[in-house]
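Worked Example 4.2. Consider the chain below.
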Amino acid sequence: MIRSRWRILPTGKIAVIVLAMLRHDQRLADMAGGNNVSESTVRRWRDELIVLLAAQVPSLDRALKKVARQGGEVVLIDGTLIATQRRTGKTDRRNYSGKHHHHGLHFLALTDERGRPIWISAARPGRTHDNTAARQDHVLAHLRAAGLGALADLGFRGLDNDVLDPVIVTGFHPSRTHKLTPGQKTANRVIAVGRAPVEHGFAHLKNWRILTKLRTDPARATHLLRALLVLTNLEVSR
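Applying the procedure from the previous section yields the following structure tokens:
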């Protein structure tokens, strides 16, 4: 545990070291040498703090119900790719994103109307489509249960096929044979303005430089992103 009398350094100092690693992507060796401790000790501190922070992120169901209790009516949903170092072997091929043209891990995230992140999914291979991730997490069912709507980009088209009472609104997509009407273009602009805060939410999250290109084990990336979500909300709320 972080609070232990057997710690070499005070708890506050340990927290500062870990935050420096997350915010500025400081190397383990640099932080260990500068504080006269071993690399394995610094790694253990980092991993313990990440797990403790990640545990504070609520489940999708609880996050949506909290928004509803606070009087919210709409959430914003989007997917993002966190770049990772390319690894050799066939198993890493699924992490290649044809959309972004590099390797990474796919995450689905929800924010409130102001762009404050409220939930983030588990890490998935980089080639995962936003719609696929949303279906696997049963996002539509959770939204209906909470009585909330969602604004999303055109990547989520087809996720909600209820024409009369849609929960997820994505706007209109032109085709070769169907051009958008002036009304549809206006609707798309309104949705784009409403969705803008989710981009700001992702921007705040990606300010943590450890996400520039993940070097950690992809299996631990879920804990890392959820820990950073907690820290981002604390930072934005100051």
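The mean pLDDT is 89. The first helix runs from residue 11 to 24. Compare this with Example 4.1 before moving on.
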